[in-house]
Amino acid sequence: MDFRILGLDPAPFRPLFSLSDEALRERGVLRVRVDQPRAAPDRIGLDDAAPGDTVLLLNYVYLDVDTPYRGTHAIYLREGDGERFDRVNEVPPALRRRLLSLRAFDEAGMMVDADVTDGDQVEALIERLFRHQHVSYLQVHFAKRGCYAARVERGSHAVD
Questions:
Q1: Distance CA 76, CA 88 (A)
Q2: d(CA 125, CA 143)
Q3: Number of neighbours of residue 36 by Cβ within 10 angstroms
Q4: How far apart are the first and last CA of the chain?
Q5: Dihedral angle at the C-alpha atoms of 59, 60, 62, 68, nearest 10 degrees?
Q6: CA Rg, the chain, in Å?
Q7: Contact of 56 with 79, CB cutoff 8 Å
Q8: Exposed (0-12), middle (13-18) or buried (19+): which is 139, by Cβ within 10 Å?
Q9: What does the alpha-carbon distance between residue 160 and residue 149 come to, in Å, rounded to a whole number?
Q10: Residue/partner pairs of 12-20 with CB below 8 Å, 24 or more apart
Q11: With contact defined as beta carbons under 8 Å apart, do 99 and 138 qualify?
Q12: CA 109, 113, 118, 121 torsion: positive or negative?
C-alpha cells in the first residue's frame, strides 16, 4: 500500500524567520541554537537540525478539528527556506530514528486507532492502520515527548 508523508508547509512560518528575538517572544516563540545532534527535529524538512543551527520553538495547532481531539504542542522549525518533505513510500530521517506514536483519524477528526512503533519499522504500522476503511489520514508524533511530527496520507503521488 502506498503512503505519502508530509512535513509542514513552510509558507505560513516564513515571516517568523526574519523577526528579532524580542518580536518572537511577544508571539510566544523562542529562537534556540541547537547544541546537540538529534535534539531538534525540523517539522518542515523532517530531518534533525545540526548543532550550531538555529531553530524556532513554537506552539503549533497540529489537529485543527472541532472534536475532543483538537491538539496543539511545541514544535521546532529550522530557520531558513527549507524544502517541505513530501515523498511517497519514503520515511524521512527524523522519523526513522525515533520511537513514534501513530494516530489514525477519520474524515470528521475522530481517532479510529493508534499504536507505537520504532521508526525503523513504521511502514508496517502505516499499512496496518490504513487497513481500517474509515481511516482518512495518520498523524505521527514523537512518542517520548508527544510532539507532532508529520502527516501521512494514502496515496501514490506527491504534489509539486
A1: 23
A2: 14
A3: 9
A4: 21
A5: 50
A6: 16
A7: yes
A8: buried
A9: 21
A10: 13/44, 13/56, 13/77, 14/81, 16/56, 16/58, 16/77, 17/56, 17/79, 17/80
A11: no
A12: negative
What's the pLDDT at 81? Answer: 67
134/112 Cα distance (integer angstroms): 8
Q: What are the per-10-residue average pLDDT scores of the chain (160 residues)?
A: 96 96 98 96 96 97 96 94 92 97 98 98 98 97 96 74
One-character DSSP codes across the chain: --EEEE---SGGGHHHHTS-HHHHHHTT-EEEE--STTS-BBTTT-SBPPTT-EEEEEEEEEE--SSTT-EEEEEEEESS-PPPPEEES---HHHHTSEEEEEEE-TTS-EEEEEEEEGGGHHHHHHHHHTSTT--EEEEEETTT--EEEEEEE-S----
Neighbours of 141 (CB within 10 A): 22
CA distance 75 to 55: 10
Provide the whole-model pTM: 0.93
